[in-house]
């Protein structure tokens, strides 16, 4: 079982590493957001917060964004493999579909983590600093849970689709509200009640808040509450994804 999961995990990492355009292109949007929002809204945030550093607030949100976009689009691998016959070859092998799902989820989550770590390292150039190695360790836990949840979500949705263009349209429709309503770019305090309610049911909200709490010391809901929520959701989406993936027809 472990060998099968490892091979599927390694296959996705090799695809990622060989696609240099994908690696570099996925860094463009996080950099744009960091520069545009960091320098554009930074002075306003400093005045509103009485001297706070907006980059300390923004950086965890942009890292989460990078993980979100990379992880959720890993579902394209399932549709791609179905169209080119690799999925059928995998299904006829003497392995369970749960093993395939776990291997693909871990592969997609690892790629998303790599992207997140690259973006996190780039935030240092713009002045963001992590206080300690313990904070970094907790940050890696939150980053991995965000990656696992949204990779599992992408694979779950892809399991019931065959059209690659349709999948991309649905993902674009989902991820922008998920990102903008998560508190990645602005504080959740003093929002209109309706927007605040939507933010509270947004899974990324708890990943962003927890990551910001451990890296910058700014948490709205509490680090351990965030950890419990995003951890539970990650387990649930993987279970649901495995059940749906077991019904996929190549």
Shape field: elongated
How many domains? The number is 1
- What characterizes the major β-sheet? none
Strand content: under 5%
| Total DSSP E strands | 0
Low-confidence stretches: none
Residue share in helix: over 70%
Cα-atom radius of gyration: 18 Å
Q: What's the assembly state of these chains?
A: single chain
Q: Helical segment tally?
A: 13
Taking all residues together, what is the mean pLDDT? 83
> How many angstroms does the end-to-end distance come to?
21 Å
H/E series: HHHHHHHHHHHHH
- Secondary structure class reads mainly alpha
Organism: Methanosarcina acetivorans
Protein name: ABC transporter permease
Keywords: Membrane, Transmembrane, Transmembrane helix
Subcellular location: Membrane
Your description of this structure?
There is one protein chain. With 250 residues, this protein is mainly α. The chain has one domain (2-245). The protein has helices spanning 2-18, 20-25, 28-40, 42-49, 54-72, 76-83, 86-92, 97-123, 133-158, 164-180, 193-200, 203-216, 223-245. Helix 5 packs antiparallel against helix 8 (97-123). The chain is elongated, with a radius of gyration of 18 Å. The two termini are 21 Å apart. 41% of the residues are buried. The model has no long low-confidence stretch (mean pLDDT 83).
């Amino acid at each position: 079982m472990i060998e099968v999961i490892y091979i599927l995990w390694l296959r996705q990492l090799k695809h990622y590493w060989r696609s240099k355009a994908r690696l570099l292109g996925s860094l463009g949007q996080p950099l744009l957001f960091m520069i545009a929002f960091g320098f554009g809204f930074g002075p306003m945030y400093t005045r509103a917060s009485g001297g706070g550093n907006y980059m300390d607030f923004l950086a965890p949100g942009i890292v989460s964004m990078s993980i979100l976009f990379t992880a959720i689009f890993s579902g394209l691998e399932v549709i791609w493999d179905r169209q080119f016959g690799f999925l059928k070859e995998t299904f006829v092998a003497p392995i369970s579909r749960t093993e395939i799902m776990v291997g693909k989820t871990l592969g997609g989550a690892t790629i998303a983590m790599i992207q997140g770590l690259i973006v996190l390292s780039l935030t240092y150039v713009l002045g963001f600093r992590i206080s300690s190695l313990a904070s970094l360790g907790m940050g890696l836990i939150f980053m991995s849970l965000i990656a696992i949840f949204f990779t599992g979500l992408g694979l779950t949705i892809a399991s019931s689709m065959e059209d690659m263009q349709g999948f991309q349209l649905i993902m674009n429709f989902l991820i922008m509200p998920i990102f903008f309503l998560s508190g990645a770019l602005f504080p959740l305090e003093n929002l209109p009640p309706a927007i605040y309610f939507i933010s509270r049911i947004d899974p990324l909200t708890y990943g962003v808040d927890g990551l910001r709490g451990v890296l910058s010391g700014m948490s709205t809901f509490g680090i351990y509450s965030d950890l419990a929520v995003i951890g539970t959701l990650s387990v649930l989406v993987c279970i649901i994804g495995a059940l749906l993936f077991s019904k996929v027809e190549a």
